[in-house]
User: Fold this.
Amino acid sequence: MKQIVTGVIGAGRIGRLHAENLIFNMPRQFKVKSIADPFIDRAWAEECGITVVLEDYKEILNDPEIEAVLICSPSDMHAEQIIEAAEAGKQIFCEKPVALDIDRIKECIEACKKAGIICQVGFNRRFDPDFAKVRESVLDGKLGEPHIVRITSRDPEPPPAKYIKQSGGIFLDMTIHDFDMARFLANSDVEEVYASGAVLVDPAIGEQGDVDTAMINLKFANGALGVIDNSRKAVYGYDQRVEVFGSKGCMQAENKTQTRTVFSGADGVVSEKPLFFFLERYNQAYINELQAFHAAVSGTGKVPCDVTDGLEAVLIGKAAIKSLKENRPVKLAEIAE
Amino acid sequence: MKQIVTGVIGAGRIGRLHAENLIFNMPRQFKVKSIADPFIDRAWAEECGITVVLEDYKEILNDPEIEAVLICSPSDMHAEQIIEAAEAGKQIFCEKPVALDIDRIKECIEACKKAGIICQVGFNRRFDPDFAKVRESVLDGKLGEPHIVRITSRDPEPPPAKYIKQSGGIFLDMTIHDFDMARFLANSDVEEVYASGAVLVDPAIGEQGDVDTAMINLKFANGALGVIDNSRKAVYGYDQRVEVFGSKGCMQAENKTQTRTVFSGADGVVSEKPLFFFLERYNQAYINELQAFHAAVSGTGKVPCDVTDGLEAVLIGKAAIKSLKENRPVKLAEIAE
Amino acid sequence: MKQIVTGVIGAGRIGRLHAENLIFNMPRQFKVKSIADPFIDRAWAEECGITVVLEDYKEILNDPEIEAVLICSPSDMHAEQIIEAAEAGKQIFCEKPVALDIDRIKECIEACKKAGIICQVGFNRRFDPDFAKVRESVLDGKLGEPHIVRITSRDPEPPPAKYIKQSGGIFLDMTIHDFDMARFLANSDVEEVYASGAVLVDPAIGEQGDVDTAMINLKFANGALGVIDNSRKAVYGYDQRVEVFGSKGCMQAENKTQTRTVFSGADGVVSEKPLFFFLERYNQAYINELQAFHAAVSGTGKVPCDVTDGLEAVLIGKAAIKSLKENRPVKLAEIAE
Amino acid sequence: MKQIVTGVIGAGRIGRLHAENLIFNMPRQFKVKSIADPFIDRAWAEECGITVVLEDYKEILNDPEIEAVLICSPSDMHAEQIIEAAEAGKQIFCEKPVALDIDRIKECIEACKKAGIICQVGFNRRFDPDFAKVRESVLDGKLGEPHIVRITSRDPEPPPAKYIKQSGGIFLDMTIHDFDMARFLANSDVEEVYASGAVLVDPAIGEQGDVDTAMINLKFANGALGVIDNSRKAVYGYDQRVEVFGSKGCMQAENKTQTRTVFSGADGVVSEKPLFFFLERYNQAYINELQAFHAAVSGTGKVPCDVTDGLEAVLIGKAAIKSLKENRPVKLAEIAE
Assistant:
């Protein structure tokens, strides 16, 4: 097995998560040589045994020994770093979103193509074993032709209202995962979107011009219909369920819990709440996506999701924003132009 | 307990079901004196011990001993019979839909009001113990404010394509139950509808100008969002599930099965398919709705769903038809005018 | 369908339950002509429309119009009434236990045989649809050869300690149902019993010389092994589960609940407790056993459980008592002698 | 965090599993310096980066740099190696069973005590998160006083009959895990055992004088009752369930599956079979037990299960063998003497 020398750009929550997964779970596959972040926690880096700790990510790009980079910086830096990393000939794993601007994303696609490098986008949920199994049951025909795709995706707590301002709103910071999941499960592109929304959780979110509860209808190219429902706050935790209904049957992936113990007591029969939030829920998926990245870089696998997928998810998000604003179904073709 | 002398108009499948429930399950509450149907199976009536078997329902209306009638005739006769029965001073239980024409339904409302009689409409699903419990959890505040209502409603087999022609199509013959259920669960009227649909099950349905797979978004007066997904054919049977998500929690009602046995074998862990179709699934609900009718007629309870509810369901159905045709959200106010 | 003219002996809780089931659920199959109980509630009988209300059950036996009797009197009267009813040529349905004395039960078997009449014993649990399906899966070979039979049977509340004195103790008043269920599910007789027990719920039960928590091992004639666990008090309600493990798979019947709704809230994911006690849990089973009795009397079915089955259950119970006392496995052959 | 320099004795299936867990999952906690096995796969060792590969385990014991050893050799070498390792002052993790001879186990206890070192025994199931949660609910009083402990433990496939000969039979090679689990869950020692068994799976097992299907009753020192049911062959896979019933409620741990997806198709509603066998099922438990060992060696935690626990499990196993042979309940005191 080839060990890939890697640099990590960005040491925030997700950057540290990926770095730790590479170091402690995939030591045979990856060697984390260096990490760059202006505000890095050096004690943490030392504990992880990362020897090269940098402030400027460009030093990683200039290091000829480094074959692959993980871009985990703030979202608005992703596109620039992708382009620079591509030009430096690095294989790229980039957190989503690639960018919120369509043209910028297209530049990234172009840059990667020109450089002949891989750019995997961090749609981690695709690597969840349950969702992957639903997808597989679509691909292998077990479900027949997909007719209906249903996704429930609810967060345990809303983000601070000020986060909304920079994030692009619910459709670009939260539903964007579900948009990708919808394409993944239907095995088809989305052609049209109708979004409805409401402010039912936190009025401060409404004051930012966003909604906190949403229902989004999707029409897929293959004729299937889809629906995503979102809430910024489910009191019982992180609710992440999917269902694909097809001509030969229906497959559901239910929430996951810490244990499967069930307690029968005077007040009822109680099982556990869903795993708290994405770090717990998609723990295995974060490892799996980097294993897939290893396979893609080593040439033993295909890139499972790239900047094109990132582009599609943003297009759907933009269509949803326009649909909500204008209260009408919006075709992706309108946005893509 | 007061025994109510009753006449049954129409002895098709649903008429016979109701008559048998009255005779064999509620003998203390109801006495079925007579039944009218031009094509009645007299042997069946005899076995049930119904002594007066008529061809013309007007004889039931003219019988002064009869206090209540069950209208189970073909749908296009409902409105006329409601009006006549109201004029004859009978208490009425009528199968849905009351009529497909909005004005005609309003005439029925008027006639009942003028006669001072009860007209309960057969929205049997409201009386399903599971769905009733979800509703109750909305009313008693256990779920907090309702934010999202989700209904999955899929039939085991599509009807013959020619049935579609007379039925008014999927939104008026099938989804109409779900429209009522949505209002029931959200405890709120629907204000706007957006419907998408596709022909994925049977092209013959498409040739009738109808769809066989549908996804309908609802906006409720109380601010909640709703979605209904329908299919004319689920290979695993009659799929009838609801979910209400609110500020304090989420309640789901799953499918019911004949038994709760689970078989673990070499091919997997297998539990039963949902109960086959509406007669099995809503078996208890059909009994419960007539017990509620008894209570309403006896004055010990309120009419749980009347012609006004029937009107609302048809309005939503008409809005869905228009929405699908014009591919835009349609307000109920547009239809009601 | 033949309507069987029936008399009910005993109008306590179970007598009234059976009478109401006959009258309100099976009016075509049975006519309840008379009921006898020295302490009968006449208002109840009137409401049920039973015209002949007697103090002395012998009048029922002397009524030539009556074809079948239901014996629902106190347990210590069962044997005498079976013998008298058999001599009077009545078809018999008798509540369990037939008697606690082995010889007395054998006299009942003899009397029925001599009279050529049917005597069905009220092992109602055999008629529960879930348990019946497990049995059916043993009979039709779906489970292969049965290897292990597991029964969990726990009551919601202990009976008053003084009841224990007359009942014969836990093995004869409570586990006796499970002993019959074990034979039913294994499709085999029991050959040897080892019982352990403890007083963990109520010391007053211990003072009566009985246990309130028990674990009973069974060896079946067909080689399978069985275990029953009992408690007089499960705080979450009436816990009634069975499992048969065989060479081709395992089938479990889980507890039943009022509805299948599930509430996800801040404290967990909560489903309903089991149905409260036997009247609720075996509601359908009580109806089904009388339908089977109707079939047996009408000659369209076989008697599903008779005095011989009652005898076997008591033999196992006696073996369990002896086993607990002597702390050793006890063969049924020891008791039968 | 202190990194413990470790040597692994034995590189069979379980030795390699532990070594890989130390190297690839706990690189901060452990450094695997050397491994000893006369038949070692050197390519595997190289891939794992283990630099010192030995044939003779004594070289590990003689290496002053090594602080801890994992004994994963054939069972009949465990006791000798424990004693030698203790004498060499190494901290010990030893696979079960310690020995099949009671006196030999006592010598091990003595040797560890004398040397003042830790000897953790590999009762991996205690570290399964589900079972650990049931235990915790006993300890924290959530279940009240424990009354009944139920363990179902069935293997997917029987071992070769010749394995039985050396293993000591089902009670010492298979049920021994359940005996430890029973003590763990009841939080109490076992005082008396009654075992029944049958040969229903494979006659060759019977020819070795062993059984392949067993039911074992336990009486605990705290008054609770327990039962374990075993089969060497469950066609649906590795069936590992536990239940503790107490005065305040009941907790169950159900089987675990690869995913929680559910497929509804024409043949039923199908969920996954249990995880195939112990390596998959107890994957996390194997990691957790070594983390606990790290804590115990580092002085940040207590040894969770030691040779005394190993002794108790063997005593119960010996009592079960005697009970089965003599068909009578056997007290542990009889065996311990």
Remarks:
- The interface with chain B takes residues 23-25, 27-28, 47, 129-130, 133-134, 137, 142, 248-256, 258-266 of chain C (CB under 8 Å).
- Chain C has a mean pLDDT of 96.
- The first helix of chain C runs from residue 13 to 25.
- The radius of gyration of chain C is 20 Å.
